[in-house]
């Protein structure tokens, strides 16, 4: 998976987050991409890849450092799992 494929995948994830908002009526602003020492998130509103602790976009060097882990988590299905876990907390009435 190259950088363009990752970018396209993240765009699709933002669309899925928006769809889930419409379908379930809940807001999903952030989706975890990497859950380690620093939690790295995808911001649905601007498409930025950020650190959850301060919600600031990663610098180019930080992004290059974390991109292999994002790629790995996408390929393992962890990012999809994180989205699904967000939806499982919804109480259906």
Outline the fold blueprint.
Blueprint: H1 3-24, E1 30-35, E2 39-43, E3 49-51, H2 60-76, H3 78-88
Antiparallel strand pairs: 1-2, 2-3
Please provide a written account of the structure.
This protein has a three-stranded antiparallel beta sheet. The model has no long low-confidence stretch (mean pLDDT 89). The N and C termini lie far apart (40 Å). It is 54% helix and 15% strand. The chain is α+β, with helices and mostly antiparallel strands. It contains three helices and three strands. It has one domain.
Low-confidence segments, given as residue ranges, are none
| Category from helices, strands and their pairing | alpha+beta
Strand line-up across the major sheet: 1-2-3
Counting DSSP H or I runs of 4 or more residues, the number of helices is 3
How would a textbook summarize the main sheet?
Answer: 3 strands, antiparallel
Strand content: 15-25%
In round numbers, the mean pLDDT is 89
Tally of separate domains: 1
Helicity level, as a percent range? Answer: 40-55%
Rg over CA atoms, rounded to whole Å, is 13 Å
Measured distance between first and last alpha carbons? 40 Å
Task: Using the alpha-carbon principal axes, give the shape.
Answer: globular
Series of secondary-structure elements, N-terminal to C-terminal: HEEEHH
Number of strands: 3
Which key terms come to mind for this protein?
93 residues; alpha+beta; three-stranded antiparallel sheet
Short précis:
The chain has helices at 3-24, 60-76, 78-88; strands at 30-35, 39-43, 49-51. It is α+β, with helices and mostly antiparallel strands and 93 residues long.
